[in-house]
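Now for a concrete sample entry.
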Amino acid sequence: MANLRRKIPSANALFVFEAAGRCGNFTKAAAELYVSQPAVSRMLARMEEHMGVQLFDRVRGGIELTENGRILHERITEGFKGIEEAISEIETRATGTETITLSVSTAFTTHWLMPRMEKLRAAFPGIDLRFQLISGKVGGPLHDVDLGIRFIHGNETEYDSVLVMPEIIVPLCSPAYRDFAERSIDTIINLSDGDREWQRHFPAFSERRHPLYNLIFSDYSIVVQAAMLGQGIAPGWVNIATHWMRNGALVPAIGEVYVTGRLCHLVHAAGTRMRPVVAELRDWIIEETRSDLYAVDAMYPELQLLKLAPNMRAG
């Protein structure tokens, strides 16, 4: 370590360099570190001069790491993650409680997780959950997150992941909406960035006499809530909506489903160590999803959900 101290101008330079390389911008790094942009620029110029190599290329709109910069940034990031994990482990030993951060949609949190919080607390009495909530389209990086839900195409390798189930959509509504026979129009409750080609995905809608009226929200949790309140028919993502299907609050509006081709995965950042308690929570979520799917498949065998999600069958 004495040798390392001679190779860098200061330990603080490592924090500044890591933030700048991750943000790709001196101004953003300065805001994160609560210092001025000139201070960041001076520190990194001093670091480059001290090491005798160029670490950044100045490009329009920000900066890019050079090859030497990438090598150093990867090693520093790995080191910081290891230190952070060690501190978390020490804190856990002191408090007896582990914190798990989830990157999930507001809809998953509201309509899948909240109805079974008592069950989760009983299964994991020693964890505190924190949330990185996504109100719109599910995606984004997994910075400082233990576990996330993402929809993945094919063999994407950005994450280490475990398959939950294929992405399956069922048109859902309240029982009262389904049974009301005198409607002159069908209301489709959809996401602002959602797929609206309902007649193509669900041919039964082409045969209905009612025209379709769209009610659009930017948050899927509101879409589901509006359907439960009898306001129309919503696209029901099966990995989220099975609790309400199981207890009868939502029912299939038609006997058709749409399999998108994407796969729902539980993911964590590639190359990072997954703590045992996080793996246990991941497996618990999958088992709860399987239990719900079996129950819903028994209620609505015409949907053939278990046939569409063969990985959910008991092994």
